[in-house]
Amino acid sequence: MMINHEKLWTKDFILFTISNAFxxxxxxxxxxxxxxxxxxxxxxxxxxxxxxxxxxxCAILIRFFTDYGIRKWGKKYYLYIGCILCLxxxxxxxxxxxxxxxxxxxxxxxxxFGIATTLYATIVSxxxxxxxxxxxxxxxxxxxxxxxxxxxxLGVWIVDNFSFNNLFIVAMISQIIALVCMSLCSxxxxxxxxxxxxxxxxxxxxxxxxxLLFQAFLTVLFGICIGGVLNFIALLAKEAHIANxxxxxxxxxxxxxxxRLVTGRIFDKKGxxxxxxxxxxxxxxxxxxxxxxxxMTSFLTASALYGFGYGTIFPAIQTWMFNLxxxxxxxxASATFYNMVDIGNGVGSVALGVLAGKLGYASIYWCxxxxxxxxxxxxxxxxxxxxxxxxxxxxxxxxxx
Length: 401
What we know:
Layout: H1 2-8, H2 11-28, H3 34-40, H4 45-63, H5 66-92, H6 99-127, H7 133-161, H8 164-183, H9 203-207, H10 213-239, H11 246-270, H12 273-291, H13 296-323, H14 330-359, H15 362-389, H16 394-400
Helix pairs in contact: 2-6, 2-7, 2-8, 3-4, 4-6, 4-14, 5-6, 5-8, 6-14, 7-11, 7-13, 10-13, 10-14, 10-15, 11-13, 12-13, 12-15, 13-14, 14-15
């Protein structure tokens, strides 16, 4: 046990966590601000949905070539390519003076982000000891959590007090820091081990790992609901006449941070069901409260519920996927997880954007609560079936359920 503890907080793990945090900062800073930028450029709520959909499509598309990229360049240098594409996009947003130009730049950002997110998660899962993987991925996710807490609010503050050009410069600096930290990590130049058997894989195999079909289904539902909050929360606050929408992200991040300090250890000791079930209930309640928010108090209450739910579900499903596949399939599991999150986010952003245009932004969160209800019922059904089928082997039930 002491050996595993010593291996958890290595130099590479710390630097990777910091690098990942800054990479995601350059992503989250745009979530509440680019929709405003699109509307200022004469765009519509449908254009806001397309902004996310194009990004998501490109992120998914590039993950089809993850195995090829690892074989050709190795994990570290392929990760460099992804981070550099994100940096190029951040710099180029300054030139995006129209909606079509902005949408075209989302292509580069989506490609880079698709590469980077897949490889960050894959490499970190390789670094962590399996007995503490849930805890380690929870801590790794704290970097993303801090980015989610600080970057959106910072972005709104920069736009309100300065200009969009200043926003793009801050995003560029964030990507540079991510590159520098990543370059200091020691990553083996592994060009064959992770994707040796994937050269002749089918379209479906590249999109998702077949052993993770149910987990992929849950992740899509989860991704739809994430997209509703991240892309439309600032617009909901305006519709409900709630000032300082950035506080939503601050409270939300604090709750995500607190949840990840605890839930990873519970996952490792008890299994995913002990984490996913309560997290789903909190997440669902967050949407119900958010849909009815007319004051700052209810708005922040919804933020807390959403934060505890998100901070519990996200790393739990990701770790669950990693634990269900052999080491050689972790890049496929990582690609599956992020593909499903992105598909859900993209489909949700477009569909919910159209819904908001007809029924208002509150309708997005009523719809999200229904989707999380489906998530909850599906997961309970899965757990019951697994425990019934594997009742003769308690250890296997714990690993699977």
